[in-house]
Every structure is written in C-alpha cells, then in structure tokens.
C-alpha cells in the first residue's frame, strides 16, 4: 500500500482547485477532504475550520495577485504604472478564486495573512502616486480614491457579466487618466 503524504500545500492546492471549479463558497473541510480522499478530521492538522481554510486560500490567491502585479510593473513608473495597476485589479483575470465583493474581502481581513497581502496591494498606490504628486494629502486622498475606484470596478466587472465590457474598460481607462491628471494638477497648484 502506497502511503499518501498530506501537507498544508496539498490541502491548499485542493481547496484552490475546488474554488476555481465551483466557487469560493464551495470550500468546506468535507469537500476538500473528499477531494484528497482522506477523512475530514485529518484536515484539522492544517486548518482550524472552514473559514480558516478559506482565509488561507484567499491569502494565497492575494499573494499571487500582488506578486504578479509587482512583476508586471517592473520598469513602469508614475501614471503608466498606476494605469496598469488599477486596470489589472479592476478587469484582470488574475483569479477565479478570490471573491470579488467587498463583504468577502472585509470578512477575511481579520486573518493576518489576508491583511498582509491586502496591505501589500494597497501600498502600491501611494508608492506610484508619489511619483506624480508630492503633497502628502494629495497622495493620501488619491490612494483612497483609486483604491475605491479599482476595487469597485472589480466587483462590477466580475459580478455583472460581460455586458458592455469593452465600453466599461474604455471608460475606466479614461476615468483613471482623468483622476491621475487631476491629482497631478492639484499637487502642482499646492507647490
């Protein structure tokens, strides 16, 4: 009889695959255990409960997104980097695993690994905004505005189907360009 090796990586991989196939809410201890052909109680070695397992999958998926963003933005700066960053978060097919709604995001922010990845994502905005605006207040307000705008569009784009997606994408790009122009102009006025 061949001994199966179970570890946290295998558990997370099985849970992630399940979420990609059936949706994030499909992740349960019993479903993942069945997928791994193990008893559900064996799962408690790697996770506390279903919510903890979902949080681990969420954190892993967020980490992959943020790592991808950092890689894709190498060599870009200022406006170009911000346009690429906001568009990717709003419309990118970076994950069918991460739930695209604010309630889910806020629900899992209490988990340190999820909060860490969310903060890494959020920290990218002021980093690039500082390259086009030098006033700390403009950077702070611009970070909040762009964060809300890109995450809001992400929710809309992923939950409202493909209706007029090309128009939405074009409008989004134009709106981001206008927002960045206003932020840069406001910063120049304050100098």
What is the end-to-end distance? Answer: 74 Å
Radius of gyration, Cα only, in angstroms? 19 Å
Q: Runs with pLDDT <50, length 5+? A: none
Helicity range: over 70%
Largest sheet: none
- DSSP summary: helix tally: 8
Keywords:
mainly alpha; 71% helix; 8 helices; 191 residues
What's the layout of helices and strands?
Elements lengths: L7 H15 L6 H8 L13 H23 L5 H14 L10 H7 L3 H18 L6 H24 L5 H26 L1
Helix pairs in contact: 1-2, 1-3, 3-6, 4-6, 4-7, 4-8, 6-7, 7-8
Task: Describe the protein in words.
The structure is a single chain. This protein has 191 residues and is an all-alpha fold. The protein has helices spanning 8-22, 29-36, 50-72, 78-91, 102-108, 112-129, 136-159, 165-190. The longest helix has 26 residues, at 165-190. The protein starts with 7 loop residues before the first helix and ends with a helix. The relative contact order is 0.11. The model has no long low-confidence stretch (mean pLDDT 89).
Brief sketch in words of this structure:
The longest helix has 26 residues, at 165-190. The termini are far apart. By secondary structure, the chain is an all-alpha fold.
């Amino acid at each position: 009889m061949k001994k199966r090796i179970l570890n946290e990586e295998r558990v997370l991989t099985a849970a992630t695959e399940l979420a990609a196939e059936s949706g994030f809410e499909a992740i349960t201890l019993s479903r993942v255990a069945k997928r791994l052909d193990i008893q559900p109680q064996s799962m408690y070695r790697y996770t506390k409960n279903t919510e903890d397992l979902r949080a681990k999958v969420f954190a892993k998926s967020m980490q992959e997104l943020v790592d991808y963003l950092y890689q894709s933005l190498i060599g870009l700066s200022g406006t170009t980097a911000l346009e690429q960053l906001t568009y990717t978060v709003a419309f990118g097919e970076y994950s069918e695993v991460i739930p695209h709604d604010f309630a889910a995001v806020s629900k899992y922010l209490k988990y340190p690994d999820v909060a860490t990845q969310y903060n890494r994502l959020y920290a990218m905005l002021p980093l690039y905004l500082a390259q086009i605006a030098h006033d700390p207040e403009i950077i702070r307000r611009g970070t909040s505005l762009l964060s809300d705008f890109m995450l809001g569009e992400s929710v809309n784009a992923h939950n409202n189907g493909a209706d007029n997606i090309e128009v939405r994408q074009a409008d989004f790009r134009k709106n981001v360009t206008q927002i960045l122009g206003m932020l840069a102009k406001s910063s120049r006025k304050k100098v």
